[in-house]
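To close the chapter, one final illustration. This time we ask the reader to focus less on the individual chains and more on the assembly as a whole: which components sit near each other, and how the overall shape emerges from the parts.
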Amino acid sequence: MLKKKRRCPIYDSKDITARKMMDLAVNDIKSNNKNKINLIWLEATGCSGNLISMLNAENPSADFLLKEMTNLKYNNSLMFAEGDAAYEQFLDTLETEFILVVEGAVSTRDNGQYNIIARYQGKAITAMEAIRIAGEKAKYVLAVGTCASFGGISAAAPNPSQSVSVPQFLNRQVIRVPGCPSHPDWVTGTIANLVAFGIPELDELGRPIMFYGITIHDRCTRRSYFDNGIFASRLGELGCMFKLGCRGPVTRTDCPVRQWNGYVNWPVEDNSPCIGCAGERFPDGMEPFVRF
Amino acid sequence: MANKITINPVTRISGFLEIEVEVEQNKIVNAKSSGLFFRGFEKMLKGRPPLDAIYFTERICGICSTAHSMASTLALEDVLKIYPNENDKMIREFMHGSEFIQNHLRHFYQFTIPDFVKGARMESSFITSHNDYRLPEEIDKELSEHYVKSLKYSRLAHEMTAVLGGKAPHNHGIFVGGVTVNMDSAKWIKIKSILSDIKIFVEDMLIPDVYKIAEYYSDYFNNGIGYKNLMSYGIFDSYTDNRAFYVAPSVIINGQYGTLDSDKITENIQNAWYELIRDEVSPIVTTVNENIHKENAYTWIKAPRYDGYAMEVGPLARMWLSGNYNRGISTMDRTIARVLEVKKIIEIMEVFLEKITMIPSNQGSYEFNQEAYGKGLVDTTRGALGHWTSVQNQTIQNYDIITPSSWNLSPEDSNGLKGTVEMALIGTNIQDIKNPVEIGRIVRSFDPCVSCATHVFSDKYSPLEIRVV
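The assembled structure is written out below.
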């Protein structure tokens, strides 16, 4: 948990931005001639929205992360090669030092057959198998997004694909970077921390405390409305979203202070409730998302 | 003897797709498109609170989540018989327009041009599956720089969605009754400024770039043609101001133009991993269930048909049906139409900005007490998207989704009719059978999204006819 020597943790966590981490990491690489670490970004049972979110990153941008900080070796959405050549790139990287990012849950039904990511020399490769073999060899494993971290939408009842989270599936340390999608700063900041300093301080669920240490409610931009009992009764109203079912009180992210997409807005400031998309029990335990 | 070529993964698309073709004397004689990914959203949605469908179905797709928030909202509004005012409608269609820009920029620069431009890549090492790069070094270098530069503008497109909708992907701002944002001049000028920056990029780089590629790869005007049957559910088609009009719900079949009749939409599961089961409780009700062991099936994508025809949906279909493009139908035409559509959409968004007023949003509190049925049909980035739902006792009874990529990537149906992409591949000349670069280029021109395309649904309240043989 939070260390006592720090001053107000709210300001502390704001200071430790992804950019700062990236700068430190890049300096480290340059001054010590450290090798850039290889990166496998596997998309599994999800919507690939975490990759799209990561492309929204700015300072550091996505290309900065993928070119200056790491060597992107495998990613279905971005990579040049296709077919066997693509999968061989995955296999070759397993023999090196690499970070494994998984977005999406692990579909286990019928031994993974509901999510096939490649066919190599005639054999179907399931996402489940790819996560297993890469998970065994990776230096670090990041579960990016809520599906990979906790099962998320992909494991929503009745869970037709029998999806489980990456930490549940792999018998090793996995850093959870949840969010639906995960904020690009949470991803780039965590990777920068790994490159520059190793594993960041984590909470009991394996989430970096710098991003997930404090609930949304505790530093909500509409907290004073809550304290003064001014509640919105429908979406679109200026007021606290608590009575509409806001999950800010049980969701730990820094959305209110960080904000999204060029740091311009976030759901509560858009007059809608937080639906707890970064939470362990999303979505089933967070519904109804909106109640009147 | 035919050679069989299998490509999996087909990279630089959304989701997991396998393409298998048979080649005889360097010509594709048969093709199979297989979506290899299943989550079962319709099953998950059953029994949930109806309003949750909006934020829930967005999560079908990370690259086109705004599309699903639009279609689900329209379906729920149809259930409740409530309609947003024109101002709110323009605000949310502006958000949807931003999604088009984000998608098309990323599809062109991050997904398409690495097929044609050697230096356009994120990887630090150069690994490729072919060597058919034809651009002069200087142009290749220029387009490679644009590949990186474009990231700023696709990001800014999502920033516009976030200004109005809280965040992107998976916005909160599109909701039953209209939007949740209360428009003010600070937001208005911010999105206006961003849109004008994007427009400059589109006019100065995006559009010239696609024509540069077309010049050196002109043989791609002659492949990837397919049935030439085009369909759109319509988008930006309900305003009195003609400048904000884009395309009406319409089809072209065998060269004949017609208006869309959504009752002619059917789905077929002959070659998909689904089977009809009988509901034990009420035997009249039939349900479709997934079965990966079904013989001869090869995909999770069902085969939607319109009046029995396999239809092409997407930017080329829209640009053609609306009279904005008429050069031809092919791999390269599809890519050019997508790029030109960005400009068209920006021009319509400019009209919205001109007309949007600073009035508060118009939200209500909604109850779903009646048993009712609703549909939301709208054209989205990749083409025609439909959500159908029935609700009862404050819960979703049934939810059906047919996505654009289901239309384009469908398998053969029980009449032996091939899917749209399959047909577009058949007949293609493959120059080097060891490096069949043509296949990926043709398939990518359709902008496949397999995350969206694979669903299971039941047909109790559905307008959709399922044919099982």
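Chain A has two domains: 9-211, 217-286. The radius of gyration of chain A is 19 Å. With these observations in hand, you are ready for the problems at the end of the chapter.
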